[in-house]
Amino acid sequence: MNPFDLSGRKAVVSGANTGIGQAIAIALAQAGADIVAVGRTKPDETGAAVQAAGRQFHVVDADLGDPSRAGMVVQEALKHAGAVDILVNNAGIIRRAEALEFTVADWDAVMNVNLKSVFFLAQAAAREMLRAGRGGKIINIASMLSFQGGIRVASYTASKSGVAGITRLLANEWAGKGINVNAIAPGYVATNNTTALRNDETRNREILARIPAGRWAKPEEIAGAAVFLASRAADYVHGAVIPVDGGWLAR
């Protein structure tokens, strides 16, 4: 049997309307999973690709800036799909400013989406996975800034460092319960979140000079790691933060 086959599995993916989340949702569908997309923006393009792969596609409209909605999101996913076997915590936002000028509003907005919602969605999903007795896979999207400090992105760095930490904590608590919790740390990927960096000629040049692969990643190049972590092939992988970075951390 193919250890990467996700047939019959139900995957909840946040921020699946574009970029990395869209690529992951499509790749999971191509591996056999039905998809529930969570977010504020209609993921019509994602839905078309998932359905083209022969899988079911559902949408849960939710503002992930409000972590108290996590339980509702999982319950809505259950109504649509009947189960939650895989959770991909991908939704994220970024705010850029010098640390001396960073505002409380920008701090809280990023932390609510990137860290608090990640934890409480994982909590809600794990409760359902345990209730159903099927175990499950939780995949968080970390960052190069889970390992490094960066500049001008104080709350983003704090949130992504936190994602790595809670990934390990949850793995410690839930590995023995049949739930795998891991993270992917994408390198520099051409998405909406990195438009400002790619448009900054100096920063873009500096970034490319450090990437051994010599280019920005495409979103779909992150998706293979998600299929692996969602599959039986990763049944003994717990608490890992897997870089997919074109060699950035190796330099």
Provide an overview of this structure:
This protein is an alpha/beta fold and 251 residues long. The chain has one domain: Rossmann fold (3-Layer(aba) Sandwich). Helices cover 43% and strands 15% of the residues. It is built from eight helices and seven strands; from the N terminus they run E-H-E-H-E-H-E-H-E-H-E-H-H-H-E. It has helices at residues 19-30, 44-52, 70-81, 104-132, 154-174, 195-199, 201-210, 220-230, and strands at 10-14, 34-39, 57-61, 86-89, 136-141, 179-186, 241-244. A seven-stranded parallel β-sheet has the order 3-2-1-4-5-6-7, with helices on both faces. Helix 4 (104-132) runs parallel beside helix 5. The chain starts with 9 loop residues before the first strand and ends in a 7-residue tail after the last strand.
Topology:
Blueprint lengths: L9 E5 L4 H12 L3 E6 L4 H9 L4 E5 L8 H12 L4 E4 L14 H29 L3 E6 L12 H21 L4 E8 L8 H5 L1 H10 L9 H11 L10 E4 L7
Parallel strand pairs: 1-2, 1-4, 2-3, 4-5, 5-6, 6-7
Helix pairs in contact: 1-2, 1-8, 3-4, 4-5
Number of helices: 8
- Biggest sheet descriptor: 7 strands, parallel
**Given this structure, which CATH class is correct?**
Alpha Beta
Average pLDDT level: 97
Question: What letter string, H or E per element, gives the SSE order?
Answer: EHEHEHEHEHEHHHE
Beta-strand level of the residues, as a percent range? 15-25%
Structural class: alpha/beta
The helicity comes to: 40-55%
- Please give the domain count: 1
Write down how many β-strands occur, each being a DSSP E stretch of 2 or more residues: 7
Distance between the termini: 38 Å
CATH architecture: 3-Layer(aba) Sandwich
Outline type: globular
- Uncertain regions spanning at least 5 consecutive residues: none
